[in-house]
Amino acid sequence: MAKRGRLSAIERMPPEADEVIRWAADMLTERRLPQRSILAGFNFGLAELGFRPVSRTAFNRFAQQARSGGLPARFRSPARSHGNIIAVLVELIDERIAVALQARAPQP
What we know:
By secondary structure, the chain is mainly alpha-helical. Helix content is 60%, strand content 0%.
């Protein structure tokens, strides 16, 4: 088994940045925007959270991982990590049904 090298700048970020990282990973896999635009949005999101921006080269390595499907599970959106969007939708529907049932329950 090959050893893995040092963690990337993005992988070393705290869990508070996971949502912004997942957003960037999703945008990269959708390929609707240029990578440069996604990097700008990513760094803006990090700045809003109080984190330093990521370099273009670090983001490029992250983009290559995202497009090849090699990201750690923590950086994949639920639909991508489950590999089945139906399971994610069923979970969301179950949550909404539970909330609706609680709202209809008689109050003491």
